[in-house]
Amino acid sequence: SDVCSSDLAGSVGMAGATGAVLDRSLLGMRNLIDRSLAEVRVTAGLPPRLRAVRLADFLGQVSATSSLDPLARECSFSVSPVDPDIEVYVDPAMLAAAVGNLLQNAFKFTKRHSEVHLNTSLTADRLLIEVEDHCGGLPTGTPERLMLPFVQVGEDRSGLGLGLDICRRSIEANHGALRVRDVPGVGCIFTIDLPYLSPGKLAARLS
Quick one: how many helices (H) and strands (E) in the chain? Predict the structure, then answer.
């Protein structure tokens, strides 16, 4: 027969597209568990576990976790490049929970066939991580209410409305702040504003 034994057994080559999807799914499952545990820590008021993290590696892992969401929502997803040598002093699990929730929220509300962007910028003492969507803009007065628990806007009311409240608390545990800016008729931009330590100050902090 021309049918190979692996086909008869129902196995699939791990080097192909199916294997890549499985890899992303397993990575997403692992990171989802880590994110859920971090959210439990935030809810319980436990202190952050701060350590030096390479920003590029962190963003790569968060992006990989979210890689299947834009396919399901029929939108595109882009991540701005960052210097591979930049390190930040954060609780990576808590910060990943915040960024992951913001991305999930963006994919949930952005219009189909639009774009979601994950951008970063750095100053002498601040790190900004921005999640930008194309949801069409927010109702009047919404930005002030979005960070409150159990508040939901838009037609999709799935979930409990706790995601942004957990984001805010996760970021504040990292000594940062969460802001939202409405772009009427276009979408909104969520900004994570974190303190940034220069390499010298970071080395002193860790010594």
Answer: 8, 7
Name the pairing type of β-strands 126-132 and 187-195.
antiparallel
Q: What separation in angstroms does the CA of 186 have from each of 137, 141, 171?
A: 5, 16, 26
What confidence score (pLDDT) does residue 33 get? 63
HSE, side-chain direction, 13 A CA sphere, residue 84? 0
The Cα–Cα gap between 29 and 21 comes to: 12
Cα(203)–Cα(207) distance, rounded to whole angstroms?
6
| Closest by Cα among 107, 123, 204 to 158 | 107
Instruction: Enumerate the H helices of 47-162 as residue ranges.
Output: 55-65, 69-73, 92-109, 142-146
Strand arrangement of the beta sheet that strand 76-79 belongs to? 76-79, 115-122, 126-132, 187-195, 177-183
- Give the mean pLDDT of 79-92: 92
pLDDT band, very low/low/confident/very high, at 99 (cuts 50, 70, 90) = very high
pLDDT at 169: 87
- Beta strands 115-122 and 76-79 are parallel
Q: What is the tens place of the pLDDT at every residue in 17-52?
A: 555 555 555 555 655 666 666 666 677 677 889 999
pTM score: 0.73
What whole-number distance in Å separates Cα of residue 32 and Cα of residue 52? 22
